[in-house]
Here is the input.
Amino acid sequence: MNGAIRQPIRVGARVIWLAGEMILAALRFVPCMLFHSGSSGLAARASWLQTACRRVLRILNVKVQTYGPIPSEGLLVSNHLSYLDILVLSALTPSIFVAKREVKNWPIFGWFARMAGTLFTDRERRIQVAPLSRDLRAVLDRGGLVVLFPEGTSSDGRTVLPFKSALLEPTTTSSYRLSAGSIAYQLEHGDVGEEVCYWKDMTLIPHLLNLMSKSRIEALVRFSELRMRTGDRKQAARQLHAEVSKLRGYAI
Here is the structure.
């Protein structure tokens, strides 16, 4: 929030710009979905989100640099640092995300998530894992790209947290394309762990306003396509964790 106090004109202008983009995105959503259904509707939602995210990244002046083949279908697993991850990944490739249930009620981002067909998970109710896995498979069967953050929460990026295996079952029993990704950020001025990463007990609106005060944010995204197949989802979680850690530059 301190950044918003130091840069009130920049933040104020970006808030107005963001409000305008949300209105524009809402107007675009209606015709986007009016003539699409089924797999076509899924692709339309992902494409709509991609356009919206690209425009929001321009508001925040986020510059994205990528290495490796950007996936277009199958399952992509990645480390998770911030709500900004979703904007960056969606801007790169049309995607359907798996997110925690709480995101539904977030200002701005919750609306985008619901409209974009996000699959929501309640991590405290394991009984919901099976229906969510079916929904995930349905997206994959239609040729979509599903983005999963198996850490289950975001962090400051100092390490890649252990992966939860519950939603990795499709990697063990099918031939869906499987990709690993890693995200890192840089700031010209400021602390990435405290000002870009969204974790601990941070509050969304103050964090977002502070983020808007930054003159420029750099995002580095690395991808790799995996050929591994195992019948054990816990083993798959360990292998995927190792690959994401490798991409992120951590010692395994």
Observations:
- The domain at 2-248 is CATH 3.40.1130 (Glycerol-3-phosphate (1)-acyltransferase).
- The chain is about 45% helix and 15% strand.
- The longest strand covers residues 178-187.
